[in-house]
Amino acid sequence: MTASTDPDFRARLAALNAKFAATVPGTMDKIAQALAACNGSTQGGMPSAVSLHALHELLHGVAGSAGTFGYPTLGQEARRLEQQVRAAMKEGAGWDGVPAQIEQFLAWAARDPGAVEFD
To answer: What are the residue ranges of helices labelled H in the chain?
Structure first.
């Protein structure tokens, strides 16, 4: 019997998906808090390295796990934002448009994190 036809496997996977789904609102709250910390720690237009790193790590976690648990669009958008934050960290510039994009992501995720299309 393959894993995809094993009823126990399907039940375990469904339980993991439900567990992940239950964490999404809390994770989005953490991202919002990290974004607020970034916005509150700007000097010369850039947030502190510590604030950016915390935001990057949260987005990275969502990007790496969301698709596995049935939220591919959530993961793709988190990956896109993670890459923008990483670029800002590396280049020390390019932060200006990122907060608005993260806020849009958070609003979208609050409506339906399992949506197939990001709008």
So the answer is: 7-40, 49-65, 72-91, 98-111
